[in-house]
Amino acid sequence: RADVAAVRAMWEATGADCHVMSAVQHDAVFASVSHLPHLLSYALVAQVANAEDAALKLDFAGGGFRDFTRIAASSPEMWRDICIANKDALLREISIYESVLAHLKTKIKEGDGAALERLFARASDTRLKWGAARTAANNVEP
Length: 142
Hints:
The protein is mostly helical. It is built from 7 helices and no strands. It is 80% helix and 0% strand.
């Protein structure tokens, strides 16, 4: 435990907020909130780039595309390695995400605006609460 305390003290001296968790928990958490978002960002940019009308789409891409894909400019080598190293947890998150997308696809096909709005409202509320808590705790923009 002295080694953990020493490493923790080093990181806290830099201003980092440290948490102790198991490797399995770390991999599951970061697959969800870091690794999957990077993968999705790369996938969207690849989808647009591979379209026959990629140049036209990119000409009209605005703030939503910019914000969603900012992290696709990250190191491809690093993210390749992270995806492979954390493949089990990341594959679980991909499956969950595919289920959410399938649900959204079904609701769009059915024209179920109420179901879409409920999902969007819950997601929006979660994002706003997370942003407010993050801003209050760390005095940073979410």
